[in-house]
Write a structure and sequence with these properties.
Elements: H1 2-22, H2 26-37, H3 42-49, H4 55-85, H5 114-128, E1 132-133, E2 139-141, H6 142-145, E3 170-172, H7 178-187, E4 191-200, E5 212-222, H8 227-242, E6 248-252, E7 258-267, E8 284-293, H9 295-300, E9 309-316, H10 317-325, H11 338-341
Parallel strand pairs: 1-4
Antiparallel strand pairs: 2-3, 4-5, 5-9, 6-7, 7-8, 8-9
Helix pairs in contact: 1-2, 1-4, 2-4, 5-10
Bound molecules: 3,4-dihydroxyphenylalanine.
């Protein structure tokens, strides 16, 4: 029995010598050592077999195996010391210690917000038509948000927009239209401006209503501007935004700062006008309100309504972004969670990082 054990131990010993001789570096040496002396290695298996020996052989067998194991471990230790002394595993000063050919860590990449993406796109289109981007404060005065836009105090039209009042003269702007007045004051006629921005309404939130959303105001003022110009420019913009020819129609709409005022509809792009669930079977989708600037508004902006006319429009940027990117719930847009915004089938262009 012990003869057989000794043969096995000799074999393990020879195996150790071979592995030590072949080990090219410290790592390889360490792996060889644990393979040989670990539970499933040659020595480990011999130790585990002791239990199956007759009782009187167990003591001597255990001693023999452990003695040999100590010997083998010592030889590994010696080899390790040799390699370490030769400098293996340590970088020479100035030597590169990483492998530049390995793939790097993937750094999560963000992307612009869908509303920002649509805003930039519209700005780019409008810039080609000679419009410049202007702005205004989100914290507005009663004067710019209402009064100058032909919505005097007590006017029932104030109820059209539920307002966050901060004091009795200061409010969070309910629309981007106050930028019209600021632009007229600052730039004077003729004028082509757009004003994208955040607006606020005191609303109960649901999938299609948020208390904070984005609009893009447009204003063009020049001599002899007519409704025909309004329609032509709107068609051009919509054709660019939707990247196809669009048919539009105007319905009368009331907004105190325009006269006449319109709701502009676009022929439904899904059914081509035949009627489908998206357009509620009408063949048309309401796309933006617009109109000819009211003389009172021109006057408030310091422009003579007899010399100049113009048109204005209010584009719902948030709504446009929802249409473009298939966002079903408006609340996702303010949530900061990209997965809440863009449905999986539309995510490719967005570099959304999924965990
Ligand atoms: N300011 C309006 C709103 O938020 C939208 C609007 C309507 C803007 C007609 C315009 C316009 O410039 O001509 O409800």
């Amino acid at each position: 029995m012990l003869d057989e054990l000794n043969r096995d131990l000799d074999a393990a010993s020879a195996e150790a010598d071979r592995l030590i001789a072949e080990a090219a570096g410290l790592d390889e040496l360490r792996r060889a050592e644990s393979r040989l002396t670990g539970k499933t290695g040659a020595l480990g298996r011999l130790l585990a077999g002791i239990g199956r020996l007759p009782a009187e052989q167990r003591g001597p067998a255990g001693k023999a195996i452990n003695a040999r194991k100590t010997e083998i471990l010592a030889r590994f230790a010696e080899a390790r010391a040799r390699l370490e002394a030769a400098g293996a595993g340590k970088a020479a000063p100035g030597e590169q210690t990483f492998d530049p050919s390995l793939p790097g860590a993937v750094i999560p990449r963000g992307s612009v917000h869908p509303v920002t993406a649509v805003q930039w796109e519209v700005e780019e289109i409008m810039a080609r038509l000679g419009f410049v981007v202007v702005g205004g404060p989100e914290l507005e005065t009663d004067y710019y948000n209402f009064e100058a836009l032909n919505i005097p105090a007590m006017h029932p039209a104030r109820d059209m927009q539920d307002t966050f009042w901060l004091t009795d003269k200061l409010l969070l702007r309910t629309h981007t239209s106050p930028c019209q007045i600021r632009a007229m004051e600052r730039l004077g006629p003729p004028l082509r401006v757009i004003a994208p921005g955040r607006v606020f309404r005191y609303e109960t939130e649901d999938a299609s209503h948020a208390n904070t959303f984005h609009q893009l105001e447009g204003l063009l003022i020049d001599r002899n501007i007519s409704i025909a110009n309004l329609i032509a420019v709107m068609k051009l913009i919509l054709a660019e935004v939707f990247r196809r020819e669009v048919k539009v129609r105007l319905r009368p709409g009331f907004f105190p700062f325009v006269e006449p005022g319109f709701e502009l509809d676009m022929q439904c792009g899904i059914c081509g006008g035949g009627g489908c669930p998206t357009c509620k079977r009408s063949g048309w989708v309401e796309i933006l309100p617009c109109g000819m600037v009211h003389p009172n508004v021109l006057r408030a902006g310091g422009i003579d309504p007899h010399a100049y006319t113009g048109f204005a429009f209010g584009m719902g940027l948030t709504r446009l972004a929802m249409m473009r990117y298939g966002v079903r719930d408006i609340r996702g847009l303010n949530s900061g969670d990209l997965r809440a915004v863009v449905p999986p089938e539309r995510r490719r262009g967005f570099a959304i990082v999924e965990k």
